[in-house]
Design a protein that fits this description.
It is built from twelve helices and 31 strands. Strand 2 and strand 3 form a beta hairpin. It is globular. It has an eight-stranded parallel beta barrel with strand order 4-5-6-7-8-9-10-11, surrounded by four helices. It has an eight-stranded antiparallel beta sheet with strand order 28-27-30-25-12-31-26-29. With about 650 residues, it is of the alpha+beta class. About 25% of the residues lie in helices and about 25% in strands.
């Protein structure tokens, strides 16, 4: 028989063994459950959009949440490509000091891929640097990559080489357009994907297309862009933006994607946009993606301004409704070079070089009355978010009036053309069809068609020119054509073989147009129809693409054909130059073009943009970082009648 002690010992051993086995089983079950939960959570996080990403911007019950806390987005639009990089931090610090927590920017496809398959992200196009500076100063970032951006920008940001395809249908499901747009989005997203909030960066949201409801209603196109952005690495919140009208909102939106609105005023007899959202989309927070702080200008019109008190009333209504807001523009900047857009293809409504926009920060970064009105209202209506004491904005750098610059040298058009290789063509063709720039054609600037004539007659330029042309015979101007002139007939006399030159300026492609319009596909520039002499089509042309890129400018500057004989009665088209001497550290200034007619200004080979005596813009903004201590070369391409000098002043003329 076993003793009681031995029985107790064996019983205890069995109990311990059972418990160990039981614990092992429980541990295995728990471990397995953890594996399943981990796998499921990972799959869930991959499948869900950024609205459910706890580290990114979320939408819950009609409100925004960031890092688990409710937030009102107070954003300002500033486009890095409209501001010299040396001033990015200054402008962003001023945003922060105004009480803003976010900066918004478009991305211009036509600059990042101006030449097909040649992407650029350097200098003024260094979007990564811009976003990192925003993070450094404490701002979140909203990115609007298009591919179409409107923005009073050339072709709404679409590259003109797309139009080389004669069947191109922009902003549609036309496969060649979708293929090009997908490649663009892939490359841009690759550049910034690691700067998303989920990866520790400042990007909290991205927009799909831009105001598509004003143009079309093909949801398959919008869904393609959405899937493209997700496929290439966008994990943050996606949204669309449209004008506050039922039709525009419905046409431009995508199910399951945040809708936002664009407007300048709240109509008194119209349902408030925030009420509309609460009634129809209670799950989404209201947001004005574009609260227009002013407006843009066209050549030949008055400078637009929005009254500060009226602006303040609308902002108060927006903030009281609990809506988030993006000020478009907070800082407008400049349409440098040839990048201005247009608003109607059939009339000369081309946007000016200045994009001042009557914004809270002026074109040269000065704080305006609207800046301080925003500051006041944010502190009043968002006291939990905007402190009573905000940081001081950076000290104003100021502008300098450098005085007069004498224009003492000039070079004629014929001598300029020696720096170009002409393209032989049987017929006149639009600039997009020239076989240059990696088979993408010419995008911007001027195009000149030359034909040697041996006899005179009635010259007819059939149809319209796109956009404005000077017709010359033997270098002497005969006529001007624009889009108000069709089938122009010019009697000409020729006594000996003489060059006929037709110099056509692309004044900027359309960036906005009405619903279902095909204007965007008709933005090819130059001569689109035949040129006849006594009803016989002229053929065998020499075509000169005057793109005015930096290598061309520098080549012309090195020419031995420059003259300095003191003549003041020369006529364009002609290039002239003078020297601005600076003794100390350069400051911002404005070039007063009083006395000049129409053309383009280059400073140290940088294309500042266009001027035109029609106004309203009378001065060109010249940022200090484009200047240097010592000699600065000012070059002007004047189409008509030049002046003997220009004056550097310290205030803009935009009236």
């Amino acid at each position: 028989m076993l003793s009681d002690s031995k029985l107790d010992s064996r019983s205890m051993a069995k109990t311990i063994s059972f418990r160990r086995t039981h614990f092992k089983r429980i541990a295995i079950i728990i471990f397995g459950a953890l594996i399943i939960l981990w796998w499921g959570a990972g799959r869930w996080s991959r499948d869900k959009s950024a609205t459910t990403n706890m580290s990114g911007l979320q939408t819950r019950k009609g409100a925004f949440y960031l890092n688990g806390e409710r937030i009102t987005l107070v954003s300002g639009a500033m486009h890095y490509f409209r501001v010299v990089p040396e001033y990015w931090e200054d402008r962003l610090l001023k945003m922060k000091a105004c009480g803003l927590n976010t900066v918004e920017t478009y991305v211009p496809w036509n600059l990042h891929e101006e030449v097909r398959e040649n992407f650029r992200f350097d200098g003024i196009l260094d979007i990564r640097k811009f976003i990192k500076i925003a993070q450094k100063v404490g701002l979140y970032v909203i990115v609007r990559p298009g591919p179409f951006i409107c923005s009073e920008w050339e072709l709404g940001g679409l590259p003109s080489w797309l139009l080389r395809d004669k069947n191109m249908n922009l902003r549609s499901t036309y496969q060649p357009f979708l293929d090009a747009a997908d490649k663009y989005l892939m490359r841009v997203i690759k550049e910034v994907a690691d700067l998303q909030k989920s990866n520790g960066g400042p990007i909290i949201a991205m927009q799909i297309e831009n105001e598509y409801g004003s143009f079309g209603d093909d949801h398959s196109y919008m869904n393609f862009l959405k899937e493209s952005m997700r496929k290439h690495g966008v994990v943050e919140l996606l949204f669309t933006s449209d004008g506050y009208e039922d039709k525009k909102t419905d046409r431009g939106s995508i199910p399951g994607v945040l809708k936002t609105f664009n407007f300048q005023k709240i109509e008194p007899n119209k349902e408030h946009f925030s009420v509309y959202m609460q009634k129809n989309y209670p799950e989404w927070p209201p947001m004005v993606m574009e609260f227009w702080t002013g407006w843009f200008d066209h050549w030949g019109t008055e400078h637009h301004k929005l009254n500060v008190d009226e602006f303040g009333e609308t902002l108060t209504s927006i903030l009281k409704s609990g809506s988030s807001v993006n000020f478009y523009m907070f800082h407008g900047g400049t349409n440098f070079g040839f990048m201005n857009g247009a608003n109607n293809a059939n009339s000369p409504k081309h946007t000016i070089t200045s994009y001042d926009y009557d914004a809270p920060l002026s074109e040269h970064g000065e704080m305006t009355a609207k800046y301080f009105k925003i500051r006041e209202l944010l502190q009043q209506h968002l006291p939990e978010q905007v402190p009573k004491v905000l940081p001081d904005p950076p000290a104003t750098k100021g502008c300098r009036a450098y005085g007069s610059v004498k224009i003492d040298q000039f070079i004629h058009l014929d001598s300029m053309l020696q720096s170009l290789q002409p393209i032989a063509s049987k017929d006149v063709v639009p600039m997009e069809m020239l076989d240059i720039n990696n088979h993408g054609g010419q995008s911007y600037g001027f195009i000149m068609y030359r034909k040697e004539l041996k006899e005179g007659g009635e010259l007819m330029i059939n149809g319209l020119v796109h956009d404005r042309a000077v017709i010359l015979l033997g270098g002497v101007p005969l006529a001007i054509m624009d889009k108000t002139t069709e089938d122009k007939v010019i009697p000409i006399k020729v006594l000996k073989p003489t060059n006929l030159d037709i110099l056509v300026e692309n004044m900027g492609r359309v960036n906005y147009y009405d619903f279902a319009s095909s204007l965007l596909n008709k933005q090819r520039k130059g001569l689109l129809n035949t040129v006849t002499l006594d009803q016989k089509t002229l053929q065998d042309w020499q075509i000169y693409p005057l793109e005015f890129k930096k290598p061309f400018i520098e080549s012309v500057l090195q020419s031995n054909e420059w003259k300095s004989d003191g003549k003041t009665d020369v006529e364009g088209p002609i290039m002239l130059r003078g020297t601005l001497k600076i003794q100390d550290e350069p400051k911002d200034t404005f070039i007063d073009m009083e006395g000049w007619t129409k053309g383009v200004v280059f400073v140290n080979s940088f294309n500042l943009g266009r001027y035109w005596s029609k106004g309203p813009q009378k001065t060109l903004y010249l940022p200090g970082p484009l200047l240097r201590t010592g000699d600065n070369q000012i070059v002007v391409f004047e189409i008509h009648k030049p002046f003997s000098m220009m004056t550097m002043v310290d205030i803009p003329k935009l009236e």
